[in-house]
Specification:
The structure holds 2 protein chains of 2 kinds. Chain A is of the alpha/beta class. Helix content of chain A is 44%, strand content 18%. In chain A, strand 3 (52-55), helix 3 and strand 4 form a beta-alpha-beta unit. The chains are: A alpha/beta, B alpha+beta.
Chain lengths: 125, 153
């Protein structure tokens, strides 16, 4: 896993963006950007190249699942690994995200170890 | 209200605070709440719909939430401000999500909304849900907080 990769953290709560940023820094990531909803994230993704997206589900303007579907239908963006980080832990949500092409799924609340393990699974160690 | 519907909220609260804020809490005896005055200084409230309509709120004492958010961020928080309000919103969101997951495992499926946060000494929480309101007080080593669950029918 290349720790210099560009990571985009998308969550409407500044608290969660801060916690994820702290955990990513703890893992060793140095290049972390933030967006507070799906629409803002999409604008960022069109402007700059990212290597990983960590995204909440429930957000105003554009939800995480809608952002995921938008990304997977865009030839320029569809190869970027997309990890859903959400309090929505019901089976139906997970199935919908898997069908839409999510790379992995982190359920809130989570520990730093969980984030690290899930990212290793996405990038193969 | 069936106790089976309340336990998932207690379990979710214990789990969320322990995992995200390294804070062990202890649930005390639930009681039927009749007034609309919150027992604390900052509250997160979120509605849910599906099997029935309901709301869950979490109300913290100032000393308790300052220490909880300090633990979440790894830095000391000294006053109730926008960062604390945001954190209470996210904690409420996580408690709602975890509780709905457990409820879905017993066949009760709910969708959650986006939480709102109210601050102020002894503020009022007017529930939009027409149903009994159960309050569950919690103790932590830093102070107290209460969750209130209300469901129609």
């Amino acid at each position: 896993m290349d720790l210099k990769m560009k990571v985009l953290v998308v969550d409407d709560f500044a608290t969660m963006r801060r916690i994820l940023r702290n955990i990513l820094k703890q893992i060793g990531f140095t290049n972390i950007s933030e967006a507070d909803d799906g629409k803002t994230a999409l604008k960022e993704l069109k402007k700059k190249k990212f290597d990983l997206i960590l995204c909440d589900w429930n957000m105003p303007e554009m939800s995480g699942i809608d952002l995921l579907k938008e990304i997977k239908s865009d030839d320029e963006l569809k190869s970027i690994p997309f990890v859903m980080v959400t309090a929505e832990a019901q089976k139906d949500n997970i199935v919908e995200a898997v069908k839409a092409g999510v790379s992995n799924y982190i359920v809130k609340p989570f520990t730093a170890e969980t984030v690290s393990e899930k990212l290793k699974k996405v990038f193969g160690g | 209200m069936d106790v089976k519907m309340i336990n998932p909220f207690i379990n979710a609260t214990l789990n969320v605070l322990e995992t995200m804020a390294s804070t062990k809490s202890e649930a005390e005896k639930p009681y039927l709440k009749k007034d609309t005055v919150a027992q604390g200084d900052v509250s997160g409230v979120v509605g849910f719909t599906g099997e029935t309509n309901g709301t869950v709120s979490v109300t913290f004492d100032e000393s308790c939430i300052l220490k909880i958010v300090s633990n979440m961020f790894g830095e000391e928080m000294k006053e109730i401000n926008n960062e604390i309000s945001d954190a209470v919103g996210e904690l409420t969101n996580m408690i709602s999500g975890q509780a709905r997951k457990e409820l879905s495992e017993i066949g009760k499926v709910f969708q959650g909304a986006i939480p709102t946060v109210i601050t102020g000494k002894s503020h009022k929480l007017e529930s939009m849900t027409k149903g009994p309101k159960i309050a569950i007080p919690f103790k932590t080593e830093f102070g107290n907080f209460t969750i209130e669950v209300s469901m129609e029918g």
